[in-house]
Amino acid sequence: MATPLSPDQLLRALRDEGLHVVEHPGWRTHNRNHKGPWGPMHGVMVHHTVTSGTASSVAICVNGYSALPGPLCHGVIDKDGTVHLIGHGRTNHAGLGDDDVLQAVIAERELPPDNEANTDGNRHFYGFECVNLGDGKDPWPEEQLLAIERAAAAVCRAHGWNQRSVIGHLEWQPGKIDPRGFTMDWMRGRIGKRLGSEPTPAAKPKPKPKPKPKPRYEPFPGAAFFKVGRNSAIVTALGRRLVAEGCGRYSVGPGPRWSEADRKSYAAWQRKCGYTGKDADGIPGKTSWDRLKVPNV
Description:
The chain is of the alpha/beta class. The protein has helices at about 5-15, 55-65, 100-105, 140-160, 185-195, 235-245, 260-270, 285-290; strands spanning about 20-25, 45-50, 65, 70, 75, 85, 95, 120, 125-130, 165-170.
């Protein structure tokens, strides 16, 4: 006999088990409690949605339909393993099932065949709807299977239950086939192994690398800057760029003092840029300067 987990307890249990959980608006009070009691809790029930697509599947489970109003479960588990919390309290997921099955779940023993529909399952089970067409062909990605395992284990761990407190809808209500595509004995085996260990939190996302700072370049200082005797770190930076471009005409250097070697080197750069005649006189102009990209000093 177990008191239902509070919204905060359920959310924490799922996240502590390493699940990515999305909280949908109003989920903490979205329920069918006006139709009957919720609790004591005895187990977890797994379903498939008979739908495809996360958004549409979540919407159906939130709102339900004319014959069965929502919420249709507590959480929707999508193909990528995300758990969408949509309800808390009594939900329309289990329906009437077999009282002998309920007693077996409470005792955590092997399940008998479900051949009666005489007991209110919405009162006693947490329900997870898993996005799948249920046609036996729609695949179950490992991310989704792992999330089912983790979600069921999280609730069991919070209540001190073992894996036999987890059942499929097909084991509860005669005529149901969900979940189709794997067996509940196989899933209970996975859950049992998980419950034998501590929770495995999801790996923290790797921090995004910081963007490299954009290089900063010296603005064009004007042609008049380049005259004999000019002494500046900009001249040294200019000379180094010219050497890097294969245009250096230095026997020594480059250095900070503007010289004939700097002029000849820059003329070589101008010619490399396609200038000729007086346009390749070795005195920097703005267009060729901007193309050279002299680092900021």
